[in-house]
Write the structure tokens for this entry.
Amino acid sequence: MKSTAEYLDDPERAAARALSLLQGLGGLSAAAAWGWNGTAWRRLAAFGDADGLPDGEALSAGTQPSAGAGAQALRAGGQSLGWLAWRGAPPAQLETVAALLAGHLQCEALRAEQAAARAANETMLEISLLAGECPALERMLPRLHRLMQRLLDADNFCIALYDEDCSAFHFPFYVDRRDPSPPDPERIFPLAGPHASLTAWLMRGGAPVVLTGERIEELCSKEALAPPAPLPVFWMGAPLANAADELIGAVVLQVYDDQPMPTSAEQQWFMFAARHVGFALDRALYHGRLERQVALRTSELEGANARLRAEVAGRKRAEKFQDVLFRIAELSNTSLSLEAFLSGLHRLLLEMVAARNCVVALYDMGSDLISFPYCADEYASSLRARKPGKGLIEQVLHSGRPLLLDPYGSLPGVTAEEGEMPPKSWLGVPLYCDHELLGVLAVQSYDGEVVYGYRDQEVLEFVANHIGAALARVRALESLQQAYADLEQRVRERTSELDAVNAQLEFDSLHDPLTKLPNRNYFSKALRRAWDAYLDGGDRFAVVFIDLDRFKLVNDTLGHLAGDHLLFEAGARIRTCLRHYDFLARLGGDEFAVLMFGMDAVDECEIIARRIVSEFERPVILAGREVFSTASVGVVLADRAHYRQADDLLRDADHAMYCTKQQGRQGYTLFSHQLRIDQADQLALETELRRALEEEGQLLPYYQPFISAATGELAGFETLVRWQHPQRGLVSPGVFLPVAEESGLITRLDRYMINAACAQLRAWRAEGRVDEDCALHINLSSANFRDPDLVGWIGERIAHYQLPPAMLHLEITESALIDQPEAAATAMQALHGLGVRLALDDFGTGYSALSYLHRYRFDVLKIDQSFVFDLDRKQESVAIVRAILALARALDLEVVAEGVETASQQAMLKEMGCGMLQGFYFAKPAPAWALDWDKLAGLGREPDRVA
Ligand code: C2E
Ligand code: CA
Ligand code: CA
């Protein structure tokens, strides 16, 4: 025997077992058992002639089995589980078997129910898992449907999704046996009136709905809805809500008449599943939304990122451009030439473009030429300027637009010129400056790897934009430099003009305009240079001082033109006496000086000095007349033992010349040691003379008488100064007068003497020794003519000593008149006005210009003692004295002959008709107290009477 548990597995086997038990009882001809499988009756087991037994369907319909064919309902828990029918079975056994079988079937029903519940649960779980899984909607919905199918017959099933934004729904999932095409999307709010669908109504209502066929029709007509077509026998729907209980859609299931009606359990599962579908959908939708949002955000971010990246790249490029632009600008400002600028530019360009080969072409409209100020090329070293032709440069120039040839041959008709390497890629852009097309910037590549594109064109255009302006700047700089160069040239020219002018000025400042010889200034410089060189061990040299003896006379008598001529001639004559390297200068007036280099000994100097003197012995022809102008020369030899500075050499040469003058002119004097001592002595003398003038008694007036040649009577006295020196004894004027003249003390000395003489004359008059016919002569140096007070002072003295002015005779030498003719004339005029008389001293020695006698009003003429001295020896002197006497007579002048020492001289002068005589023959100068008045009375007697 099998255990009861075995039967539980299988109702058929349990029924067969139960029936076999009945069969074993015997007497039973036939029996059958039916069970309810949930939807229909089915025969579980049978034996015998079962056909005669009532079948399950008939039984379930409530038909009672016929008598004799006993039937027993199998019931459990008030539920009919099946039937057991038999024929002829004893009722007791039947009941037992039926109870057994019913128990079996109940178990079976419970088991089936349990299995279905488990399956439904599993499906629900899967639905909720599906919701958790969150696949994409299009994958999820068919799976949802498959799971639904497991719960109930869902052949006509759809899922509607509500879109809140447009308050409408559509069917992402739809299956229908009879109407396979899903309905159009439909609005819910507001409902579309009689066309609204049941689904719309369902969603609007917000609650699940289960409708049978009749109910559908009823509802549609009541609610004015469009009934579904074809009309189902059953319609069931549930709105779907999300976690927030908001409408998201609906699930709808329809059953047509060929399908079994869903059981109430199935309806419950459907509703239950609908909630999970809602969650799943919600999650899927949410997920989808999220994903879409994420995708949207991501794409937004990606977009933003891309924009940022582009922006950064753009900014970097802009920075690079900016940097390059800046450097171009800098380059244009710092480049000293266009060439330097362009090569610098090329370097910058290389940083941005593969531009190994770069050409800058400039077009000049004036010459209609394209020049190439810059060309860097792997195959061509330079490009020659050319007339515009058919080249690519010309095309860019013509169009004024960039030209990109990539590849090079892409432009028909473009071929490289003969011998030229054709590039692979070519790019040229126009160069503009202020809308003016200047030229072209072009790059080309011979390398197949390097091809130019619009990006390069952009860069090149960018650079070109700034080249134009920079070119203008560089050109401006170049023209500025040209302007500077011009300016410098002009400055140089101007400077050289100025130099010439300066040189002329310097020449003028250093040269005498008349003779063109160096002047005193220049001489001093040369002298100092020579002196310094000498001190440094250089050549010894001599300084020669030359003074023309008769120059002033020439100037006054023959005029300045003749004087100039004489000076010019003098310069030329001195020059002929010198070596070419000797330095000759005109110091001023009639003074010349020479630096004679390489002079070691005095005799060398003498040779040249003598030569100069003799050069002036020849007459000069001036204004058609022969003029003799001798020269007085002084020479000094540089000597570091005796000199401290160069200027002293000139001073001593001058002094030596002066000595020559003193010694009667026309000759030379070598400055000697003796002269130097004398010079020193003169300085001492000067000091002592100054003191002598302040003290009484040192300077004494001596008086030398002169007599009338005819009568021998006293005619007058000449006052001559003597210096009773406390140490030196009696010093003669020949010694100290030059010192007085040079130091300017002479005027004081003369006033001293005039005063003393006037005082003496007054005394003599007072003593009655002289009458008014006696003349008192006083020597007056030319220096006095510079004293404007002189005449007034003399007048005052005359008045003071109450003298008849005509007794006073002032003796003036020719040289005084020559030195300052105007001042002399004025003073003499004034002295005449006082009534004082004037005598021309030393006549015949100086220039003996007769014009003086006409010009100045002299009263007395004194024949120089040199003529008197030679009277009895030289016939020439006799002639001169005769001439002078004739002249004096003609001019009505009195004449005094000086230096009469012998009786024969006296006799000759008397015989020649000379008015008055003065000389040692009669008396030597003597102080007033020593005058022998008795002797004076008979001075002019016959010689034999003189003791
Ligand atoms: P001087 O005016 O020609 O004066 C005549 C000079 O001849 C005087 O020389 C006189 O002593 C000298 N003497 C006169 N008779 C004879 C003679 O027979 N034989 C010779 N050999 N000599 C004779 P002293 O006094 O030595 O004066 C020299 C010069 O000094 C003067 O020449 C005059 O120019 C100047 N002198 C003299 N005293 C003064 C003075 O008080 N004032 C000025 N400014 N000059 C004066
Ligand atoms: Ca005199
Ligand atoms: Ca004299």
